[in-house]
């Protein structure tokens, strides 16, 4: 999948405190609003610095350190005011919990040597240290990470109390808008599977970095699409450096979005890469069903998408009933079965039973064609499951069998029982 370079670790460690500072609760307006869920759990020394008494001079010193990212441009506030016409209202692309995004255009008229390029300029809300920390987290991660399925950070601005970020412009906006806006044409099946694969590749790249990066807020509104519908992950304000060495998880304040956060993370505050896998499963389910993760306008039993759909994902008599009816006959039954089975495993209540994102990528790749491949293999990796392979054989259009196959290092009588997908 590639890596993020040898200097990633030193920079991430240098800003470990900043990456763990997410203290202020945010109000809940709808199912896609970032939230803080109060939970008691053991806190690291870095977590103990999550308070507003952090000296501002330390924040300023941290800001100066971002100059090490030579591939990121330090813009002046005047330059960004110029390219957005003083942040005119008709230049607004959207608004989120952390700021307003404007369209702009950089070229040599802004600064000599700049390549002509449309950009998106995010102006963070002035929320004191909290806004700064999230801004700095984004610069820290995107200043080092480069991948076709991550949005590219072009530059930043840090003047007085102004915090701005400049990204590549994504012509088709967010996946959320394409899936759920009533005026939007329904995304075709092939496009949905392509988007799922691209987003999976982005997460797999983060998880396979020299030190894993946990995205922590994977959802449709954070998946942006370019003119070719290539999916790119955006908004790294809640990202965390993952566990190292013998560590099994990162303990942190529970933050994320209702409907997407993994249940074990919500309950304990223990964050792992498998937390992202669960969130991916929710988004894959949204792609398959055309429904929001949480929709209060639906009947009470259908308001939580995972609760409603997951029992049907592995049922050969029911799984087709949850597929978005707007897709009609664009997909094969086999392809739908495979995609539903993948979502089922990603949404497992047991994090160790979820696949790695690299395995998710391998499972989605055969679905990029006609979806008629006869076989697909999903590797379930993790403590206790690392050498088992779940291999599905599809019989006809509806018949499905599933059995656990021990790998070469497995001893008989392992912990994973034989299973059947009904």
Automatic annotation (TrEMBL):
Positions with a binding annotation for ATP: 122
Origin superkingdom: Eukaryota
Transmembrane segments: none
Pfam family, one: PK_Tyr_Ser-Thr
Record-annotated Protein kinase domain positions: 87-368
Enzyme type, top EC level: transferase
GO molecular function, one term: protein serine/threonine kinase activity
Keywords annotated in UniProt: ATP-binding, Kinase, Nucleotide-binding, Plant defense, Serine/threonine-protein kinase, Transferase
Membrane as UniProt keyword: no
Record EC number: 2.7.11.1
Record-level GO BP terms: defense response
InterPro entries: Kinase-like_dom_sf (IPR011009), Plant_Ser_Thr_Prot_Kinase (IPR050823), Prot_kinase_dom (IPR000719), Protein_kinase_ATP_BS (IPR017441), Ser-Thr/Tyr_kinase_cat_dom (IPR001245), Ser/Thr_kinase_AS (IPR008271)
Family annotation (PANTHER family): OS01G0588500 PROTEIN-RELATED
Family named by the database record: Belongs to the protein kinase superfamily.
Protein name: non-specific serine/threonine protein kinase
Protein source organism: Acorus calamus
């Amino acid at each position: 999948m590639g890596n993020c370079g040898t200097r990633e670790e030193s920079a991430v460690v240098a800003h470990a405190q900043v990456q763990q500072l997410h203290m202020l609760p945010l109000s809940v307006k709808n199912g896609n609003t970032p939230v803080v869920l109060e939970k008691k759990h053991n806190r690291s020394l870095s977590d103990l610095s999550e308070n507003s008494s952090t000296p501002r001079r330390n924040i300023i010193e941290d800001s100066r350190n971002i100059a090490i990212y030579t591939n990121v441009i330090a813009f002046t506030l005047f330059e960004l005011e110029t390219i957005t016409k003083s942040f005119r209202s008709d230049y607004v692309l959207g608004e989120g919990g952390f700021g307003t995004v404007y369209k702009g255009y950089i070229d040599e008229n802004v600064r000599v040597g700049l390549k002509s390029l449309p950009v998106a300029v995010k102006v963070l809300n002035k929320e004191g240290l909290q806004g700064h920390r999230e801004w700095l987290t984004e610069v820290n991660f995107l200043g080092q990470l480069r991948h076709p399925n991550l949005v590219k950070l072009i530059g930043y601005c840090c003047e007085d109390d102004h915090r701005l970020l400049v990204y590549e412009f994504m012509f088709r906006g967010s996946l959320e808008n394409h899936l759920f806006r009533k005026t939007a044409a329904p995304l075709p099946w092939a496009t949905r599977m392509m988007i799922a694969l691209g987003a999976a590749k982005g997460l797999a790249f983060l998880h396979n970095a020299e030190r894993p990066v946990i995205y922590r807020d994977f959802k449709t509104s954070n998946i942006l699409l370019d003119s070719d519908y290539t999916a790119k992950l955006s908004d790294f304000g809640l990202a965390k450096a993952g566990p190292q060495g013998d560590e099994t998880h990162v303990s942190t304040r529970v933050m994320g979005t209702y409907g997407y956060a993994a249940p074990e993370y919500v309950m304990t505050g223990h964050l792992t890469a498998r937390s992202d896998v669960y969130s991916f499963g929710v988004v894959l389910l949204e792609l398959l069903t055309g429904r929001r993760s949480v929709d209060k306008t639906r009947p009470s039993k259908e308001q939580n998408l995972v609760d409603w759909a997951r029992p049907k994902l592995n049922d050969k008599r029911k799984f087709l009933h949850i597929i978005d009816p707007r897709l009609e006959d664009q997909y094969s039954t086999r392809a739908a079965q495979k995609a539903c089975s993948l979502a089922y495993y990603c949404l497992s209540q047991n994090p160790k039973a979820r696949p790695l994102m690299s395995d998710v990528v391998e499972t989605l790749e055969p679905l990029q064609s006609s979806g008629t491949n006869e076989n697909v293999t999903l590797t379930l990796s993790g403590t206790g499951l690392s050498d088992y392979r779940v291999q599905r054989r599809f019989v006809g259009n509806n018949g499905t069998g599933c059995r656990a196959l021990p790998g070469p290092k497995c001893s008989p009588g392992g912990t994973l029982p034989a299973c059947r997908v009904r």
